[in-house]
Amino acid sequence: MALLKSVDTDFGIPAEYWNIGAVQEDFKGKGTEVTFYGYASKEARDAGKQPLSAGKVQIAGDDYVAGADRAALYAIIKQKPEFEGAEDA
């Protein structure tokens, strides 16, 4: 699973293929922090190339779902402003 969205990077090459790299959940605080990585393409990711970009999304409040799987996390992330218009890969 991943998301497709073209985002300019500091390297002058857009990151187009985004995947979840890490998830940290705080059950007591009712929040999840998702770390995601952006690659030039799926082929670059599959070839083991380094990401061009990385970022984090905080999921809390009404968006928080305890124990959410990757599919649910991607669906939530697509609702965030930074991933508006992203498509499933």
Description:
By secondary structure, this protein is mostly beta strands. It is built from two helices and five strands; from the N terminus they run βββαβαβ. It has one domain (3-81). It has helices at residues 42-46, 70-77; strands at residues 3-7, 15-26, 31-39, 53-60, 87-88. It has a five-stranded antiparallel β-sheet. A hairpin with a 4-residue loop joins β2 and β3 (31-39). The longest helix is centred in the C-terminal third of the chain and has 8 residues, at 70-77. The chain starts with a strand and ends with a strand. The model has no long low-confidence stretch (mean pLDDT 96).
The total strand number stands at 5
Task: Show unreliable segments.
Answer: none
Residue share in helices? Answer: 10-25%
- Shape descriptor reads elongated
List SSEs in N-to-C order. Answer: EEEHEHE
Question: What is the gist of this entry?
Answer:
The chain is mainly β and 89 residues long.
